[in-house]
Design brief:
- The protein is mainly beta.
- The protein has 2 domains: 76 residues, Lipocalin (Beta Barrel); 83 residues, Lipocalin, CATH 2.40.128.
- It has 1 helix and 19 strands.
- The strands form 5 sheets. The protein has a 5-stranded antiparallel β-sheet with strand order 15-16-17-18-19, with no helix packed on it. Strands 1-2-3-4 form a 4-stranded antiparallel β-sheet, with no helix packed on it.
- It starts with 13 loop residues before the first strand and ends in an 8-residue tail after the last strand.
- Helix content is 6%, strand content 53%.
- The N terminus is likely disordered.
């Protein structure tokens, strides 16, 4: 499908798959569309959330939840074929990713051989560890703050928030500190 970089065609009635990165984890969305019967099936993380059998209207919109966010798949007819696009929180996937990247920071450290995914929501200062919201203890430090939390295999884990010493556009800087070692955030690509 043109215009949606996160679209993949799969054989059979499965016409689209998307990966959506949210603070609580990386979610997969799978969409089946029977182009003769109108059948529609949506699975989130392998679990069926919508199933509609025989439908006369082959185009339309299906709305569902993914990780607490509202999402919709839009089915449109273009000539003799169909196109499929997904929106999250009322935004195109591309716009949602841009917004998400502005308001979250993600780290993918490996601690004692175990991979972890740590996400900071910069609006709420919530910290998610491997998909679960974790308890934090905050403390103010000179020029910023630290939010301490527990991470399996780490003696100490916290996110340090500091004011940027550079331009105003940079805003705040976020660093993950594990066992005294500093980690920069990564940019996750959704697709």
């Amino acid at each position: 499908m043109a215009g949606n970089p996160a679209y993949n065609v799969v054989p059979g009635d499965i016409v689209g798959e998307w990966k959506i990165h949210l603070p609580d984890g990386i979610h997969s969305v799978e969409f089946e569309h029977g182009t003769t019967s109108g059948k529609r099936v949506i699975r989130v993380d392998g679990k069926e959330v919508i199933r509609k059998g025989w439908m006369f209207n082959l185009v339309g919109k299906e709305t569902f939840k993914i990780g607490g966010k509202s999402a919709s798949i839009l089915i449109q007819s273009e000539g003799l074929s169909f196109t499929y696009s997904i929106t999250v929180n009322g935004q195109t996937l591309k716009k949602f990713i841009e917004t998400q990247n502005k308001h979250t920071r993600t780290w993918l450290p490996i601690v004692k051989g175990e991979p972890h995914r740590i996400v900071l929501d910069t609006k709420t200062m919530d910290i998610y560890v491997d998909g679960s919201l974790t308890e934090t203890v905050g403390e103010f430090i000179d020029g910023g703050a630290e939010n301490h939390f527990e991470l399996t295999g780490a003696e100490s884990a916290f996110i340090r928030t500091l004011q940027s010493t550079g331009t105003r556009k940079k805003g705040l800087l976020y660093k993950l500190i594990l066992n005294g070692e500093e980690h920069d955030p990564v940019v996750e690509v959704t697709g």
